[in-house]
Write a structure and sequence with these properties.
Helix content is 55%, strand content 0%. By secondary structure, it is mainly α. The protein is flat, with a radius of gyration of 23 Å. It starts with 13 loop residues before the first helix and ends in a 22-residue tail after the last helix.
Amino acid sequence: MVENKAEIPEKYDLNAKWDACVDLSVRRFVYSSFAGGFAGLLLFPMSNVASGSPVTRWASVAFGAGLGFGSAYSECAHKFDTSSRKLTPNVPETPLPEVSK
């Protein structure tokens, strides 16, 4: 028996969008966390006691993870055709009057 499954256009397939966003978020989070950890080991070596504390290395891992998650969030917002709030001010269409000197 052959199933007659109607094809859902890619624009409206929410399951595929969610799958892609979860996959993208996990990959970017993990890769950027590893990159942050590697950068922390390079920038804050263990031999220098003052700047090589585990807290600074964990901070670099957290910074990398935040970058990865933020980039995945913005990419997923574009996939769902939404965007974060625009930070541009409301500029009126009419020009300002000229001031005479």
